[in-house]
Amino acid sequence: MVLPIIGYGDPVLRKKCVDVAQDDPNLKQIVADMYETMYNAYGVGLAAPQVGLGIRIFVVDASPFADDDELSKEEQEQLSNFKKTFINPTILKEEGEEWGFNEGCLSIPEVREDVYRHERITIEYYDEDFNKHTDVFDGLAARVIQHEYDHIEGILFTDRISSLKKRLIQKKLQNIMEGKTRPDYKMKFVAKKGR
């Protein structure tokens, strides 16, 4: 089921999420709904708070990046099949140079800014069958994971930009909170709650 994506300004996007119980009877459905919602909005990642759930889950499918001619063949190949579910993840290590990339967010439509993140991460997580993994990711895969991981920590990509850039996008953020933005996917805006 396609769920509405929670817009900037909603308190759920600022909460540190709690772990998911292994025996949660809704887990498979939550994951399926998150993928369907992400694909419906043409996203490459989606975290549970973005659909109103304060739990430590995010899904990633970075395959749209595989068509980027500026990437090495190796990275294109890595991204072409990069679809993963991360449950109760913990980033163990961030390494390498921080590098900038123009990021956006389904919860913050029509806003894009350069964000600097580490080039390599080591992350421990469970998949949707609750098998435990510890993996190392780099490049765009690491970036997408870090962006979604921030969501379950209550951090938005706009928190990682300069105060000047924050002032420059303030009106756009206000428009999102007031529901004056019209993305081509279903959203729930903080100002329209209860109406």
Automatic annotation (TrEMBL):
One of its GO terms (molecular function) is peptide deformylase activity. InterPro entries: Peptide_deformylase (IPR023635), Peptide_deformylase_sf (IPR036821). The active site is at E148. Keywords: Hydrolase, Iron, Metal-binding, Protein biosynthesis. Its EC number is 3.5.1.88. It catalyses: N-terminal N-formyl-L-methionyl-[peptide] + H2O = N-terminal L-methionyl-[peptide] + formate. Binds 1 Fe(2+) ion. Pfam families: Pep_deformylase (PF01327). Fe cation binds at C105, H147, H151. Its cofactor is Fe(2+). Removes the formyl group from the N-terminal Met of newly synthesized proteins. Requires at least a dipeptide for an efficient rate of reaction. N-terminal L-methionine is a prerequisite for activity but the enzyme has broad specificity at other positions. NCBIfam families: pept_deformyl, PRK00150.1-3. Belongs to the polypeptide deformylase family. This is Peptide deformylase. It comes from Flavobacterium alkalisoli.
